[in-house]
Amino acid sequence: MFKKLFAALGVGSRTRADAPYAKDELNVVHRMLFADDAGQLFGDAPDVRVVQAMAQDATEESRVRLLAAQWLRAHGHAPAAPQVLGVVIEVPLEHSMDTLAAYADGRVRYIGQDGGTAVFEGAPEDVAQQAKTLVAAAVAAYGAANPHKPAHAPHNGRMRLTILAQEGNRVLEGSLHSIMQDALAKPVLEQGRSLLQLVVRPASA
After folding, report:
1. Of 10, 142, 188, 192, which has the fewest Cβ atoms less than 10 A away?
2. Does a cis peptide bond (omega within 30 degrees of 0) precede residue 124?
3. Half-sphere CA count of 134, side-chain side, radius 13 A
């Protein structure tokens, strides 16, 4: 988990560029966290107004809103209400990677380096609220992030913060030292650490 990173980041990742996890199903789950491939979700010829409404519906699941916005951009339509709706934090570790995803609706997904997963659908309340706090912290960093999605998983002791927004995902990547020296990225990482502590706490806590 991330505590290894904060204790001593520096091990190089040996993950494959296209498959950071040993199990194929985990790699599928990992790719879905970014909500950047609408695929056939909306069919061949959806009503643009319906997709637009989904993108701006605050009661809709964040990932669905992101996928709707992605479809709109791909078809020449700007989302009606572009917003930052999620954050994915990836930390490469020996042979694998820790991935924590948080969304503006309070949902959380975690994939551990050992292949274990955790899914939170808005409960417990402290997890949902911390997820929202993490996403809020990423809003200021969005403008300074790289709009280009890397074609490979982070490696060589680097971590990656991907900010998910209706205008398109953006990336901040670097060593722990460089992230912590960045006034915009540091709060995102710190809020991510706080969320992770809630996600991996013992069930009896």
Report:
1. 10
2. yes
3. 33
Integer-rounded Cα radius of gyration of the chain: 16
Does pTM top 0.90 for this prediction? Answer: no
* 162 closest CA partner among 34, 68, 6, 64: 34
Cross-strand pairs, 96: 93
Question: What is the C-alpha to C-alpha distance for residues 134 and 40, in angstroms, rounded to an integer?
Answer: 30
Which residues have a Cβ under 8 Å from the Cβ of 116 and sit 6 or more positions away?
none
Residue 9 is predicted with a pLDDT of: 32
- Which helix (DSSP H) or strand (DSSP E) does residue 69 occupy? helix 62-74
pLDDT band of 153, cuts 50, 70, 90: confident
Q: How far is Cα 93 from Cα 80, in angstroms, rounded to an integer?
A: 39
> For 2-51, how does the pLDDT look when each residue is reduced to its tens digit (9 = 90+)?
444 344 333 333 344 567 888 889 999 999 999 988 876 787 778 999 99
Question: Do 146 and 170 meet the contact criterion of CB atoms below 8 Å apart?
Answer: yes
Cα distances from 133 to residues 2, 56, 60, 105, 137, in angstroms, run 18, 20, 19, 11, 6
Number of other residues whose CB lies within 10 A of the CB of residue 190: 14
User: Cβ distance 84 to 163 under 8 Å?
Assistant: yes
Give phi and psi for 12, each to the nearest 5: -80, 145
CB 185 within 8 A of CB 172: yes
Q: How far apart are CA 175 and CA 198, in angstroms?
A: 24
